[in-house]
Structure formats: structure tokens, C-alpha cells
Specification:
Number of domains: 1
Strand order of the largest sheet: 1-2
Order of helices and strands: EEHHHHHHHHHHHEEH
Structural class: mainly alpha
Largest sheet: 2 strands, antiparallel
Helix content: over 70%
Strand content: under 5%
Number of strands: 4
Radius of gyration: 21 Å
Number of helices: 12
Distance between the termini: 32 Å
Length: 276
Amino acid sequence: MTQTNPTSNKILPSSMAQIGITTKYTLLDYLRSKRYLAIFIITVFISVLLTVVIAYERPANIIGKPLDFYGGWWNGVVILIVLSGILFGGDAISNEFQSKTGYFTVPNPVRRSSVYIGKFIAAYAAASSIIAIFAVIGLGNGLVYLGFNVPVQFVESLLFSLFYLAAILGFSFFFSALFKSSAMSIIINAIFVLFVFSLIQGLVTGLVKIEPWFILTYAQTIIINIFTTPFPAHAVTAGGMTMYTATVSEGLAIIGLYFAVTTVLGLLLFERKEFN
């Protein structure tokens, strides 16, 4: 569906077309950027290091054991998700204010929602390519030592990872829309995801002694725990202290809630923030 500018009678691109254009050029910017090169190098470095260690040591606890092999390899994916979310989403919206590109966008008949959604899709695509690279190299190693014996848990964990990535990006876009400074939005976002969530989770579990069901990082444990058979118990009490583990359904619900709430809040902030 197209729109018409009443002042010029020109046919304007539809919202979907605007999203597509924003996605295309933002994704190209990401793929050509130094930040993408940096996270790509980190991903390849981790992958090569794991490949060399496995080839040299041939650890008996994972060779010939698909669940242990892929579970051990996939341990590194969480940090890649977090770094990708921060790098690609941390300043996606705040940069519109800091670099003043938004000043040129606002006078034109371009919906802010189209810009926001287009940038989100581009960030998700760029970050997903990093996860895909790590997964492909892991599968390549698995084929060498295990043949085509790929456990279904690896596929499930990959899907959980991509879902978690969406939540991390939603959270990053929220902070990016909250601040007009790119540096501030990236720093605050990184502090929350890397430190604050873990600190709150530890305090809630240790001092308040309740399940930290409202913490995003609590839900991420399903990505690795899915490789454990049977799945870890939801609550284990030892020495008077109860340790909680998110179930798959609970983890997915937490991730989905964070994604929906933070993404919508970020969009609302971007829609209402003035370019001045």
C-alpha cells in the first residue's frame, strides 16, 4: 500500500517499503563497520581456539558423546549474543540524535516506526550471522568427530539462542531510545546485561531467597541446560540455600516478555522524543 503526500501529490513508499529500505542500508552499514569486523574476529578466534584444543587434547569426556560435545562448544554462544546485542543495538537509535541523522529524517514523510523496525531487523540479521558462523564451525567440528550425529538439543538450543538474541536487542534498543548519547546508551546497556542482572540475581537468590524469575539472564540458562539429560531440577536445596534453575517453558516466557516489553517501550520513546 502506498501513501500520498497531500502537499506534493507524490506517491510515497508504504510503511513496509520504508522498513525494507531502512533495513537494507542499515544492514549494509553494519556489515561494513569496524564493530562487525571486531565481533567477527572474536567469533573466529573463539572457534579456532576451541577447534585447536579439541584436536590436540581430544578430551575423552566429549569425543563420541554428541550432547557433551555440542553442549561444551555452545557454551561460548551466550557471550557472543550479549556482545552482538550491545554492539549492534546499543546505539542504533541514540545515534539518530547524536549524529543528527534524525534531523534529516523527521521532515520527510518517513514513519519513525519504520525506521525503528528497519534498524531492529538489520541489527538482528547482523547479529544472527555471527551466531550462524559460530554454529557452522561447531557443526564442522562435530562432523569430524561424530559424523552426522547432531542431537536435536543442539537445534533447540540454537533456536533458544536466536530468541534470546531478540530479547537482548529489544533491551538494547530500549536504552538506545532512552539516551541521546551513543556512548551512554552502550555503556549503561553493557553494565546492566553484563553485571547488574547477575548481581541482582545473586542477591535475590542468596538474601531474599526467592526465585529470580524476573531477571533476563536467569532465563538464558535454558540455552545450555537443554543439553543436560535429564533437565536440571527447578529447585535444589542444599545447606539451607535453594538454587533455582529456569525450566524451558519459564525461560521462554521470560525471554518473550522482555523482548515484547522492551521493544515496544523503545519504540514509544523514539516516537515521542523531540529532535532539538
